Amino acid sequence: MDLLILVFVLLVSASSAHEDAFVGVNIGTELSDMPSPTQVVALLKAQQIHHVRLFDTDREMLLALANTGIRVIVSVPNDQLLGIGQSNATAANWVSHNILAHVPATNITSIAVGSEVLTTLPNAASILVSAMEFIHSALVASGLDSQIKVSTPHSSLIIQFSFPPSHAFFNYSWVPVMVPLLKFLQSTGSFFMLNVYPYYNYRQSNGKIALDYALFRPLPPNKEAVDTNTLLHYTNVFDAIVDAAYFSLSSLNFTNIPVVVTESGWPSKGDSSDPGATLDNANTYNSNLIRHVLNTTGTPKHPGIAINTYIYELYNEDLRSGPILEKNWGLFDANGVPVYSLHLTGSGTLLSNDTTNQTFCVAKEGADRKLVQAALDWACGPGKVDCSPLLQGNPCYEPDTVVAHASYAFDAYYHRMAMAEGTCNFNGVATITTKDPSHRPCIFPGSHGRNVNFINGTLLAPSSNSTTSGCHSEYFYSNIFMSSLIVLWGAAFL
To answer: CA separation (Å) from 231 to 80, 164, 255, 331?
Structure first.
């Protein structure tokens, strides 16, 4: 049986049986306290992230990436497309300054020419293919065309009628551009870059797309989406969009161009108009996405063929314009602290730094107080956590709030259960955090340096020397209905 691994890092390497499957990260730079290139690379190396995509060709970043072996996609920003697409000489000069100056020390493997040009900068569509061809010609002249591929990332919005996937096709207005573009990719052995954001499909579906379907959560067979033309079953939005791209390629008679997902992710925070943007959902989506890619599950149309993917993104970018969610797609904050810990199992070799035990279980901010109280009562009662530190006069009594006391009890249970899957749920009022909630004199069980007695996560009974309950009587409702409810919720809490 697979073990649940709680990690603070991105799983980026497949098992030896699936060496071609990988997950990379996008690195945006719109941070008020942007780490230096050296610090960025230190984080990548510490977390064993081997594939990155840059949105430009920043010289200092490329120098910092030199001699690391990290595989890099660099980008021609949209505002440089016009000059490059109109002049072979300008393209050659761009390659000389931004590519030749850094290879082979920096392992540049691909050049993304523009970003979502057809949907965000349609006036530049006419020169997009020319820009790609001129860049490629400069690489050929330098003998780098076999090492460095040229492509351009597309929004999934270029696909019409993406479900059922077999009925999908590219927006007809872009066919005059898509056909020569695809011929270029085919003739140069490159790949089709696609940005896939199930979050937006879910948000814009007005309830027609279930959250579980967007998050890769397991679905019963009767809830799977079925392509009535092919009878292929789809268990997640991601696969459906990728296969829609493959079918769209086929509709133009291109069947041998692989799809690489250059952006995919889920926001961890949003405003009232984005209720699906939560830490838990971001954690669930990215964890399941990583597992899905690195297991080389493939898609229903192409089972067993890896869909290599770059997660958007490494850092939360607080300077990005727009709503709150635009600033909260990152795996880490500017200090390199994980925004949440990914839950990965069965994904091949895990490469991480030595922080895998530094997770804590605390009450969710803003959770319903009555539900938190009920969960606290369960933890200190049927859950058999030693809550004596919460008694008046003891180290964890202050602050004397339900949330503070529940956080201690939740963390005690979580670590007593060896951080096993599902042991930080408590009917949805608990969450895993990487921030140590300890405060003097109250040291939480999961805090670094503490001697915590772990038990096998499959055991639900306390160890023989545990107390039945150390909770103050105020944590128990005398109401018979509430007591019964707590017992019934026990399975959900576990």
So the answer is: 45, 10, 20, 36
CB atoms within 10 A of CB 248: 25
Q: What is the pLDDT of residue 490?
A: 37
Four-CA torsion 136, 141, 145, 151, nearest 10 degrees: -10
Contacts of 388 (CB under 8 A, 6+ apart): 394, 467, 470, 471
Residue among 19, 60, 263, 421 flagged as catalytic: 263
Closest by alpha carbon to 174, among 191, 155, 189?
A: 155
Indicate if 421 belongs to the active site. Answer: no
State which residues of the chain have pLDDT below 70.
Answer: 1-19, 343-358, 418, 420-421, 448-494
Q: Which residue from 273, 264, 241, 271 is spatially nearest to 329, judged by alpha carbons?
A: 264
Burial class (CB within 10 angstroms; exposed 0-12, middle 13-18, buried 19+) of 143? exposed
pLDDT tens, residue by residue, 54-107 = 999 999 999 999 999 999 999 999 999 999 999 999 999 999 999 999 999 999
CA 215 to chain centre: 11
Query: Quick one: tokens of 431?
Result: 């969450």
3-state secondary structure of 99: helix
DSSP 430: E
- Looking at residue 489, its pLDDT comes to 35
Is residue 3 within 8 Å of 342, Cβ to Cβ? Answer: no
Q: What is the DSSP string of 38-71?
A: HHHHHHHHHTT--EEEESS--HHHHHHHTTS--E
**Tens-digit pLDDT profile for residues 453-488:** 322 222 222 222 222 233 333 333 223 223 322 333
Spatial distance between the Cα atoms of 168 and 156, rounded to a whole number of angstroms: 11
In order, the DSSP letters of 170-236 are E-GGGHHHHHHHHHHHHHHT--EEEE--HHHHHHTTTTSS-HHHHTT----GGGSEE-TTT--EE-S
Q: How many CB atoms lie within 10 A of CB 439?
A: 13
Specify whether 263 is catalytic.
Answer: yes
Catalytic residue among 19, 60, 116, 365: 116
